[in-house]
Design a protein that fits this description.
Rossmann fold, 5-stranded parallel sheet, 11 strands, single chain, globular, 4-stranded mixed sheet, alpha/beta, 191 residues
Length: 191
C-alpha cells in the first residue's frame, strides 16, 4: 500500500511551522503520520523548525540521491531526505512544510496532497514585522509576492486567523480523514 505526501504551504508569517507543530502534538502516537524535517541552508532561527546544512553538504546530498524533494526559496536551498519516501512506500502519510512555488510546479498526483495555510494580509504583515528577520522592504516584497499565488490549487485550505489550536486541530483532522480519499487522483481545487 502506498501512502501520501502532504505538502503544507503558505506565505511566510502565515504560521505554517506553528500549525504543523500543533497538529504534530495532537497526533502523537500516530505511527502512520510522519512529520518530515526539512534541511535548509540557513542557520536555525527562533520559531523555525529545520535541520541546518551547509551548501556543500546540500549539494552532496542532492548529487547522491539523498533528497526526495528539493527547492530554492528566498536565497536558500530546502530539501526533504530520501528516507521519507520509504515511509510513503510503507503506507504512511508524510507531512512536509513546503514551498508554494515548488508545489505549484508539480502536476496533480494521486500520491500528493496540498494544504494551504493562509491568514489575512494585515495579520500577515504584523507577524512578518514581529519576526524581525526581514527589512520593511523585504516584508513589503513578501506581501506583494502573495498575489502571484492567488488561486493556487489546494486540497485543503486552513485560515490561521483564530487561536493556533484551532488551525492545528483543523490540520490534524484533515490528516486523519480527508487526506486519504479513495479517488484515483488528487482533488486539488483552486483556492
Amino acid at each position: 500500500m502506498s501512502g501520501l505526501w502532504v505538502f503544507v504551504c503558505g506565505p511566510s508569517g502565515s504560521g505554517k511551522d506553528s500549525v504543523i507543530d500543533a497538529a504534530r502534538q495532537a497526533l502523537v502516537g500516530r505511527s502512520d503520520i510522519v512529520f518530515a524535517r526539512r534541511m535548509v541552508t540557513r542557520p536555525v532561527q527562533p520559531g523555525s523548525d529545520h535541520d541546518p546544512v551547509t551548501a556543500p553538504v546540500f549539494a552532496g546530498l542532492l548529487q547522491a540521491g539523498g533528497l526526495s524533494w528539493h527547492w530554492q526559496a528566498h536565497g536558500f536551498c530546502y530539501g526533504i531526505a530520501s528516507h521519507y519516501a520509504d515511509a510513503v512506500r510503507a503506507g504512511c502519510l508524510v507531512v512536509v512544510n513546503g514551498s508554494r512555488a515548488h508545489v505549484n510546479s508539480l502536476p496533480p498526483s494521486a500520491g500528493l496532497r496540498v494544504v494551504q495555510i493562509s491568514t489575512d494580509p494585515e495579520r500577515l504583515a504584523i507577524r512578518l514585522a514581529q519576526r524581525g528577520r526581514d527589512s520593511d522592504m523585504a516584508v513589503a516584497e513578501r506581501l506583494a509576492r502573495n498575489a502571484t499565488f492567488a488561486g493556487m490549487p489546494a486540497d485543503c485550505v486552513i485560515v490561521n486567523n483564530e487561536a493556533l489550536a484551532v488551525a492545528g486541530q483543523r490540520l490534524a483532522n484533515y490528516l486523519t480523514g480527508s487526506a486519504r480519499p479513495t479517488e484515483a487522483a488528487s482533488s486539488r481545487t483552486p483556492m
